[in-house]
Structures are given as C-alpha cells and as structure tokens.
Design brief:
By secondary structure, the chain is α/β, with parallel strands linked by helices. 39% of the residues lie in helices and 19% in strands. Strand 10 (325-330), helix 12 (340-353) and strand 11 (358-363) form a beta-alpha-beta unit. Bound molecules: beta-D-glucopyranose (BGC). Beta-D-glucopyranose binds at residues 16, 19, 157-158, 161, 219, 278, 329, 364, 371, 380. The site of beta-D-glucopyranose has 11 residues, from loops.
C-alpha cells in the first residue's frame, strides 16, 4: 500500500484550548468538571498544561515537520467578566501566535470550541438570540489585538454537536434535554456564524491585515439505515438532515429549510471561503438509535471506523458549497496507539485518490487531551501525555505522521514500518481484523 498526496497538500494537527490548556479559566467546562460530572472523575483544569508549555509544544510541532496548526482561543480567559477583557490573556495568545509564526507554523484560529465564560452561560448562552452580540464583541476584540498574526479563522466548532450534546442528550453542559431548544440553539448558531463571517472579513480588511479565509467547522458523519426497512431509511435521512445537512446549507448560503429558521435578517449569500469538515465515523440507524452491525471495525470508544465516509461527507458539502475543502478534524481514540497509523493511512489514501479540491488535513489530535465527558480516559493524540508528570512522548503514529509530511505521502517502507500488521477490533465478535476497511466493510 502506498500513496502520494497532491504537491501543495498541507498536513497539520488540530487542538482546542479547553482540552489542552489547563487551569481554571472560569468556563462552563470548568464548572461542569468541578461538579464531578466527568466520567473518569478527571478535571479539565489539569489537561496538558499547554497554557504554560506552549513554547515546548510548538517546538515539538516543528520537530515533527508540522506547519499547520488549528487552535482555539479561550473566551473565558480573554473576557473573564462581561465587558472586561484581559490584557494578560490577549498578550499570551499574541506571544503564542508570534512564536508559531516564527517557526513557520501557520495557525488556523477557532473562536468558539464548545466553551464560554460562566457569565455568558448565566445569560442563557447560545439558546438566546440576543446573546449573539457578546460573541461578536469577543471576536472583534480578539481581531483588534491578534488579527495581524493570523489570516484563517473558524467561527464556531461543530454547532450541531454542541447543540445535540448540551440540549438534546443532556450529556454536556447545560444538560438540557429538549428537541425544541436544540433546534433553537442551532438557529442561533447559524446567525452567529453568518454574522461572525462578515465581521471577520470587515474588521481585518479595514485594519489592512490582508485577505481572510473564514468558515465554520462542521461535524459530519455517514447515516446508513441498519435494515432496508422504510422506518430505518426514513430515520437515517431525517437524522442526516437535522444533524448536518440543514444546518450546513443555512450556514454556507443563508438558505433555511424547516425546522431551521431565519431568526434575523440573514440574506442569502456565500458564508464560507472553504469547507471545514470534521469527520470521525458512520452511524447505522435502527429506528432512532445508532446500532453497530456485527464485525464492524471500531475504536476504543466503540465508534465505527469507516474511511470512505470521509470522502462521502466531503462530496455532500461540496455539492452545497463548491469551495476548497479542509478536513479540519479526523482521528481516533486509540489508547495504546495500536491502530492509529492504519486509521490515518486509510483515510489519507482516499484523500489522495479523490478529485475533490481538498487542500488541508488537520489530524485530531496533536496531543492526548481532555476529551470532554470522557475526560483523560480517551486518548486521541499523536503525542502521549503523562498527565501526572506532563511529560510528552511522541507515539509511533506521531513519527509516522512526521514521515508522511516529509515524504508527501506513504511509501512501501513506511507501510511496512508503521502500518502493516495493525488491527482493528471488530464490534460484537471479540475478534480483530488486519484487512483494510473499504466501502464494502472489512474483509477478512
Ligand atoms: C471535537 C473535539 C473532540 C473530538 C473527538 C470533535 O467532535 O471537535 O473537541 O475532542 O471530536 O471526540
């Protein structure tokens, strides 16, 4: 197995401030984990201490040949009280961005990655349309201080995931379980994204900072009916529309389809300069729930591994908005780094063969980190973090990734060294498979 990526293809990594920085920023996640709500009892204030160790981490990125870095800004640190902006925090991010730039690493900044200040939570956060102005003011302040150091931005990370986990399943803060509130939150997010898109372009251009590239990071998965029954087929299409397609269309173009609604005065237009797509898995839908068919390859969180879905999702988005595509997240929970290299190789091989204009791939994640409700127990990193000592150790998959960048793809030697012999667990069978996963599933 070997493949070559396009000449200018960029391989980077992604992170999010709350998941790596550590400390008590005064965010919704600080409060949630302090209440003991994380499955393994860990606390987000430990994480990987990146706030303190950002230089060391940037050096590590550079040593792995990584020149593209998706990161987020922690709103709660920057605006700890309503309307009060912290010079220290803004200076900190200025130093971090300048340091990355000095190493030749191009940042891609996410303004909102699931976390906000507690004062914003108290106001009802994104469940209320009138709160969008707070989010926009935060962005404007950040751009005034940091906008010269970065040209590429993501307004919101996965509005659909945050809305469904926080307002439908209730597993994340604020632990609500109302379908109608989830839809309202999605509607508010759509308007927030579209307003932020225009704001970022306007502010950076007025400041003379040069061209901006702006999008929102959309979580996509493949929804496949478990059986051929009409019920499973209908349910899969409905979930596909509610969870991703309806929201994507509205965010990309300002065109709303029920139950998504134009709450304000959003005009039709183009609200993405590139598609930012986060892809992890496929759902087999049985009635309303996801079900794993027997012998499905799964990761350590029992998420189905289905590489062809990455391209299928890119195609769906591209059909709605034909602009360049960045895979802004893709990766897997593999606590012992037993199959991550295989996972990366299988996804990137398909990217290399695709005719779509895919320009970037940001692996999730650079370093093991605080995985939301799973806390420290789910490891997604190319780099291992010992949370007690904060020692970083590059995993085999991290060395593989560095070689992928160096060679612009994978040759036969790399395949033999890193990938050959790696196996996936097969769901409900107690067995493993070493054969590759393709559109027809795993072949043993
Ligand atoms: C999120 C990340 C998360 C990853 C793995 C994505 O949905 O953006 O924050 O850690 O998935 O669960």
């Amino acid at each position: 197995m070997n493949f070559s990526l396009k000449k200018d293809f960029r391989l980077g990594v992604a992170t999010a401030s709350t998941q790596i920085e550590g400390g008590d920023a005064g965010s919704n996640w600080n409060a949630f984990s302090a209440e003991g709500k994380i499955k393994d009892g860990s606390d987000v204030s430990r994480a990987t201490q990146h706030y303190r160790l950002f230089r060391e981490d940037a050096d590590l990125l550079a040593s792995l040949n990584i020149r593209d870095y998706r990161m987020s800004l922690e709103w709660a640190r920057i605006e700890p009280k309503e309307g009060v902006f912290s010079d220290d925090a803004l200076l900190h991010y200025r130093e971090e961005l300048s340091y990355l730039n000095s190493l030749g690493i191009t940042p891609l900044i996410t303004f909102y990655h699931f976390s906000h200040p507690l004062w914003f939570e108290a106001k009802g956060s994104f469940a209320k349309r009138e709160n969008i102005g707070f989010y926009l003011r935060f962005i404007e302040r950040c751009l005034a201080r940091l906008g010269d150091l970065c040209s590429d931005y993501i307004t919101l990370n996965e509005p659909n995931v945050f809305a469904s986990m926080g307002y439908l399943s209730g597993e994340w803060p604020p632990e609500e379980t109302s379908f109608f509130t989830m839809i309202r939150v999605m509607n508010v997010f759509i308007e927030a994204h579209i307003s932020a898109y225009s704001l970022i372009h306007r502010v950076r251009s007025e400041a003379g900072f040069g061209a901006s590239h702006v999008s929102f990071a959309h979580s996509m998965r493949v929804f496949t009916p478990f059986r051929k029954s009409i019920v499973d087929r209908l349910s899969a299409s409905l979930q596909r529309f509610l969870f991703q397609d309806g929201l994507a269309r509205a965010c990309f173009t300002g065109q709303f389809r029920f139950p998504f609604r134009n709450l304000g005065h959003v005009k039709r237009g183009q609200y993405a300069d590139f598609i930012a797509l986060n892809y992890y898995s496929q759902s087999h839908v049985r009635l309303w729930r996801g079900t794993l068919p027997p012998r499905t390859p799964v990761n350590d969180l029992n998420w189905e591994i289905y590489p062809p879905g990455l391209i299928e999702c890119c195609e769906r988005c591209f059909a709605m908005m034909p602009v360049p595509i960045r895979i802004s997240e893709n990766g897997t929970c593999d606590n012992d780094d037993r199959f991550r290299a295989r996972y990366i190789a299988e996804h990137l091989e398909l990217v290399s063969k695709s005719a779509l204009p895919i320009s970037h791939y940001y692996h999730w994640c650079f370093i093991d980190n605080f995985e939301w409700k799973e806390g420290e127990s789910a490891r997604f990193g190319l780099v291992h973090c010992d949370y007690e000592t904060q020692v970083r150790t590059v995993k085999q998959s991290g060395h593989f990734y560095a070689d992928l960048i160096r060679h612009g793809g994978m040759n036969d030697d790399m395949y033999r060294q890193y990938v050959a012999g790696q196996t996936y667990k097969l769901a409900n069978s107690g067995k493993e498979s070493i054969n590759r996963v393709d559109a027809a599933g795993v072949k043993n």
